Amino acid sequence: MNAKIWLSSPHMGGTEQAFVKEAFDTNWVAPLGPNVNGFEQDLSLFLGEGTHVAALSSGTAGLHLGLVLLGVKAGDEVICQSMTFSASANPIAYVGATPVFVDSEDETWNMSPVLLEKAIKDRMEKGKKPKAIIPVHLYGMPAKMHELMAVANRYDIPVLEDAAEALGSSINGKMCGTFGAIGILSFNGNKIITTSGGGALVSNKSDVVEEARFLSTQARDAAPHYQHSKIGYNYRISNLCAGVGRGQMEVLAKRIEQRRAIYQQYVNRLSGVRGITLLTEPTGYFSNRWLSAILIDPSLAGFSREDLRLEFEKDNIESRPLWKPMHLQPIFSSYAYYGDGTCEKLFENGLCLPSGSNLTQADMDRVFAVIDRMIK
Ligand SMILES: *Cc1c(COP(=O)(O)O)cnc(C)c1O
User: Fold this and answer.
1) pTM attached to this predicted model
2) 59 lines ligand 1 (CB under 6 A)
3) Which residue in 21, 52, 11, 56 sits closest to 186, CA to CA?
4) Ligand 1 atom closest to 58 (CA)
5) Chain segment 244-256, per-residue pLDDT in tens
6) Would you say the CB of residue 84 lies under 6 angstroms from ligand 1?
7) Domain ranges in the chain?
8) Could you tell me the fold of the domain covering 16-251?
9) 253-375 carries CATH number 3.30.413.10
10) 153 vs 157: CA distance, rounded Å
11) Which pLDDT tens digit goes with each residue over 271-302?
12) How far is the CA of 60 from the centre of ligand 1 (A)?
């Protein structure tokens, strides 16, 4: 059997272990320490002036804290992009709120500003103004943030931006994660950089980030004894994981370049192939190309995305259908949904291809050999 080719696997840069070793040598084996502070500084420098960052145990924790910080409570409604990973929506349930799902538009595969406004109007007519909006930058492609923010601002609803897949993506130079009132990042094992598991909460308001740090370390009031006047969480990142993150930050720019080069190989080989389309960047948009994905129209291509996925599987190559929309998930199917069929079609015809920055040319040759077999 050929060696497994993964969709996206961890890719260390080389200095991560030195940061972790220093943590051991100085006994900072705790959810605080120099690596946590250093990782936060690296991230805020990368995201741009005025960006404050709290490093956390996961992106999911960031979304949960984000909702808490925005004051979302039990019984409230929160609008969420349907086309996403379940971690965007689960924290809505953690706070006892109700999700309202909104479809994507087909230029970025992310939340449609038109359908967002339709959803807000309809929820308000039904008697409840949504308390927050969660757009997602899926596969690294920025959502239409200017248009989405314009709608959100018109109704004065805060945006919690899920940039878990989009570290380094931007619109006209402004980084994903910095558009909304609060943004979140993920450093899970399959993301563009990883701390094995980790995440961050981002805001241009330092007091919001300070409060995130407070809540994420059990909300301990200033007192010699343990005293609490708020519900706390254990969501801070460990100083060991943050050490891995500091090493990864040294190679982030290179990882983005490498992922974009993989995407370009797919463009070079597949553009012009009947029935296969790739997602292009709208003017001013920059995607980190975390995952390269294609759409296959079976009536034109002569094969479906499932045919191709199974063919990859035979050669021990991992590929994956585009994320199944939340409104189609058994756990979320009973909630309100505003759509026009876009993300259902994306799910039906879309496939994520091997995209890791550590793929070798030999790996890519294997991937293309399978695709070539199907195209014939
Ligand atoms: C990975 C991911 C998350 C969750 O991040 P974790 O660090 O794994 O908790 C949230 N949203 C999206 C879109 C993701 O891809």
Assistant:
1) 0.97
2) yes
3) 56
4) 7
5) 999 999 999 999 9
6) yes
7) 16-251, 253-375
8) Aspartate Aminotransferase; domain 2 (3.40.640)
9) no
10) 6
11) 989 999 999 999 999 999 999 999 999 999 99
12) 6
